[in-house]
Amino acid sequence: xxxxxxxxYKRQQLLGIKVQTSTGTVVGEVTEIYELDPNDILRVQSxxxxxxxxxxxxxxxxVNVDEKYIVIDPxxxxxxx
Length: 81
What we know:
- By secondary structure, the protein is mostly beta strands.
- Helix content is 10%, strand content 42%.
- The chain has helices spanning 5-8, 11-14, and strands spanning 18-21, 26-34, 41-46, 49-54, 60-64, 69-72.
- A six-stranded mixed beta sheet has the order 4-3-2-1-6-5, with no helix packed on it.
- The chain is globular.
- It starts with a helix and ends in a 9-residue tail after the last strand.
């Protein structure tokens, strides 16, 4: 599907990239990408542990591979561990 992260961005461009919310809170770093339907899942290592973040248009607002960060708008509960 065209919404897959791996279709748009190469896997190595996303691994190790920093994840932050739209308010600037740093969530963590991408450690793995799982290719699933309908959305790929980013595994993010935070200071609290691992978080699984769907790579969907609703959640991932921006990907900047040059500056190595992803901006997400997490739904309620996503970042609660």
